[in-house]
């Protein structure tokens, strides 16, 4: 586009692409409220952590509910700037899934349930979960200083692992560093090491004292991945496989590292980020090197896996003990905000994921035990998005939102619990 872009792999509160309003602005408001009083976003953490895992082989949801969910997607899809959508809802009694639009607009292939997509910052919830598992095991403490594991960081002796997980460390996100942005958009095929990513953030850090404020920073979660590798003595992909994928049976979830290929089947992903994209001709970012996201945004998954994972993320079943899960559910600011590697709005807990070409939402409703997942093969926003690049047929008069977030908002309304600030 001839101008510098702000790289996005999730919601944030800074400038450019990281200021994306999600689900009608609720997530952006959630994140800006990140330092409010901790407490009551989840009404009863003990009850939530006691829920059983949803059994496999669930029947379809009742026909009237399926019709309402289908209608919600069909109404929201035309306002979402994406070729295709995959969506699913899992309740204690049943499951509903569907796919709309194109996986490959040029070739004509339709979007299909079961396709693999890049899930961006939903990866952060996996990283945070493993961190909490290691704390449960006594292998580390959330109150350990990051300097114990990674040297030469600004305030490394004062920043606690807990502050990295809650985005209150004061370390600049490397995805807001000009040196990184210039290099990435010059050549999206480059491979990065975690240490290189952190190095991009150091010249601009700290931006505040540890614990003083909230700032959504991908540097935080990359550092947590480095800690996990050091403590376990294993590559992060093996850790995820042993501690999350295998226990939950997530056979379609994949840690790519620097591998640019996606498992079959997968949709093509489109973006307006980068130097070559224009509103008339978005860039195909399907095979951009994912190493730049690492433990902050590198993972690949499927709808079925994310539905199972979303419920486990909410209850802790198969992942964390009840006491640890309850601590996680109490970590959110009141009435909404970002806690231990995930966010909460009015009882909805989870994360959005956004990186060039793909957008994902995974949220669990703690009030109803319902999980909602949406995947889109575009990260292009639509609506009243200010200076952000949008498509030529962009709808106006509606709040700016990324495609999966827009559809998730519609589904939450159809379920009777709109994702909105209380």
TrEMBL record:
Alphabetically ordered keywords of this record: Carboxypeptidase, Hydrolase, Protease
A single GO molecular function term of this UniProt record: carboxypeptidase activity
Annotated SUPFAM superfamilies: beta-lactamase/transpeptidase-like
InterPro entries per UniProt: AmpC-like (IPR050491), Beta-lactam-related (IPR001466), Beta-lactam/transpept-like (IPR012338)
Superkingdom to which the source organism belongs: Bacteria
Pfam families: Beta-lactamase
Residues spanning the membrane: none
Domain Beta-lactamase-related: residue ranges: 79-382
Official protein name in the record: D-alanyl-D-alanine carboxypeptidase
Organism expressing this protein natively: Salipiger thiooxidans
